[in-house]
Amino acid sequence: MTRNVTWAALGAVAVFLASCSHPPQPAPVTSRLSPTTMVEAIRAARAGDKSVVQVTPLRDPSVDGYLDGARADEGAGKYQEALGKINAALKLSPEAPDILQFRAEIEILLKDDVAAEADARHSYDLGAKVGGLCASNWETVLEIAESRNDQAGVQSARTARDTCHKAGPIRM
C-alpha cells in the first residue's frame, strides 16, 4: 500500500514540476487603443485646434443629407451603413477633404486602418493644410501608428499635426 501511495505522490510531484518548468507565454500583441478611443482623439484634435484659419467648404445640400444620415448611423453603431452614405456623398463631392476625413474615422471604427490612413492622407493633400481638419488628418495617422507601436510614425505624425496650428497675430 505504501508503494502505491509513494508512486502516486511522485506522479503528482512530477506533474506539478512539469507545469512549473515552462515560462508563461507572452501576451498577444494587440492594438493599445480601441477604435472608439482613437476616433475620439481624432475629433478632439480637430475641435481643440484654435488656429486663426479654419476652412469650411460650401456644398450641395443633398451631400449634407447623406452626411447627417451617416452621423445618425454612426451614433447607432451602424458603421457599414454610415460608410455607404459617406460613399454616396463622395460621389457628389469627390474632392471634399472633410468628407474623406469623416470616412477615415468610420473606417477606423470598422478596423480598416489601411483605408483610414489612405483617406486621411488624401484629405490632407486636398485640404488647406492648416486648422482643425489638418490636425485631425495627422491625428488619424498618429493614432494608427500608435496602434501599430510604430514610434517613428507617431513622432512624424505628431510633428506634422503640430504644424497645422496657425496662431493669430499678437494684439496689444
**Named CATH architecture:** Alpha Horseshoe
Strand fraction equals under 5%
Mean pLDDT: 84
Major beta-sheet overview: none
**Total DSSP helices:** 8
* CATH topology (level 3) name: Serine Threonine Protein Phosphatase 5, Tetratricopeptide repeat
Number of domains: 1
| Number of E-state strands | 0
Molecular shape: globular
Q: Report the top-level CATH class.
A: Mainly Alpha
Q: Give the low-confidence spans.
A: 21-31
Structural descriptors:
172 residues; mainly alpha; Serine Threonine Protein Phosphatase 5, Tetratricopeptide repeat; 69% helix
What can you see in these coordinates?
It is a single chain. The protein is mostly helical. It has one domain: Serine Threonine Protein Phosphatase 5, Tetratricopeptide repeat (Alpha Horseshoe). Helices cover 69% and strands 0% of the residues. The protein is built from 8 helices and no strands. It has helices spanning 2-20, 35-48, 61-75, 79-92, 97-109, 113-126, 131-147, 151-162. Helix 6 packs antiparallel against helix 7. The longest helix is centred in the first third of the chain and has 19 residues, at 2-20. Mean pLDDT is 84; it is low at 21-31.
